[in-house]
Amino acid sequence: MDELHMAPKAHSPAKWWQVLLIVTLVSACAVPVPPTGGPPDATPPALEFSEPAAGSVDVETDRLTFTFSEPVDEASLLNAFSITPELLGPIEVKSSGRTVTVRLPETLREETTYRVTLDTSLRDRRSVSLDAPITLAFATGSEIDTAKLAGHMVRATDGSPASGIDVLAYASPDSASLADGPLYRTQTGSDGRFVLDYVRPASYFIVGLQDLNRNRVIDSGEWLAIPPMEALVADTMDAVPTEPWILSQTDEEAPVLDRVRAISDGELELRMSEALRLPLDRPFPSGNSLILSDSAGTRQVPVTSLWFRQQHARTLFAQVNDLTPGTWTLSGSLALADSAGNTTDSILAVFTVPSGLPAPDEASFLSWTPDTLVSTIGTSSAEQPRSVWLQERVGFRLTRPAEEVSVAFIDSSSQRVPLPLIREDATLYSWDDSSAPRPYQVQIRIPGADSTYSIWLEGAASSQLGALGIAINPAPFSSDDLVGRIMPDDGGDALVSAKMDAGMMLFDHLPRGFRGRMLVFVDQDGDGTWNPGSLSPYVPAEPVRWHTFRERVRPRWETIAADTLRFTLPAADAVSTENDE
Q: Which residue, of 409, 427, 460, is where some domain finishes?
């Protein structure tokens, strides 16, 4: 039988498109695609398995294996990983899905308990970090260390939990021990608490450190918590010291002059190594004495004025007459301090003045002081003046020194009021408004400037003022040593200081509606400021307590908080180690 050859039947174009559409839909259904939308992932990775397992003994290995509930970021694990006793050399990290392998750089010691920590910088691939560090321990011998150290850390500003802070355990507080590095390390959890378990029974010096550069070395300027006791004994109990570790910024280095640059033919820019404590409403420090000398040493030109333009600025400005091109040396003294109170004394800098520099800019208005005052552009009037409280220094600051400033004080009937203007420093002006009418207007005119700046003010009357107070039990300290500060609860510098009186800390002459947070400390060294302590020689921080008033100031009232602030703390509850795995 002859083979029958059939020619293929032609299909219409419409049917070919139908086939193509069906194939495309089937292919799309066959590929799993993660759903879009929904709430973002907020669950941190959890450790499900480790090799060696936590608590293992007689371990012989050169690598550690971790399996997590989800894939983790490999780079973050490299930063988060630490092992004590510390091993010499870098570790190697390799990941495959949810499993990460850490290859150790050297052979483990015999008869030793090793403690592995994955701190809170460990995150998953969606950048969700751990809430608390993961800790496990194993031993190369037949026994594992079981002693424990515990405590909690708070921030000096408000007493809130200090989370994610490195906890370093040293053999002793002497400088040699600190230089050798910590024996153990962990981190505080979100509640500020820490547990160092699986440590050898002994006494330890425990330091809290916000290790910003992650070098596990206590560097100047980093936030530090001095222990409340010199020695903390590791044992098998869960007791926690009642006094917290108090985290504050430590800085023992004075600001230095980094750079001098001529920005006009009569003005220098002085760049400091760090921010200076220069509030806008306080006079620039006096006692500055700077001299310019030319390269031959034959000419000396004095610096006539120093000023700044922004709060906490690193940059100062100096006014100099006859600043000619060439090489100059700036020397002398600067009575300046940084935020930690470290002062700058003598300075010495060599710089070059180029030719063709412009003339200095004209002085202009910079800011009312305090800087919560605002211009009258649609904000204040004779009917709605801005109240001036007793704690405020009223004035204004210019961008640079001015030869002449015209200031007028005018009452609500458009009559001038003779209030004396005080020049506090090169660019800050103020006045005493205790004898000013209620209300009054301030008008500022600077020669050469296009605008007139004005504001309506009104000194606060006694009927607008009130007080906040709280009962304090100072035991075991003397009430005569207690000093209090009250600040706005939304931030800002202290408004009022107070001392104890008849068992009460009372902050008076506060503006109506004010609600504040209070800091009370035991001024053991009598200097009027809170001392965060020191490492070597060991000096603990001065005891401190905090309170946030729920109540607002009522005019002509003394509002007393229902709570009593106590310096004797109750016994601490047992510490849970449920965050450690």
A: 460
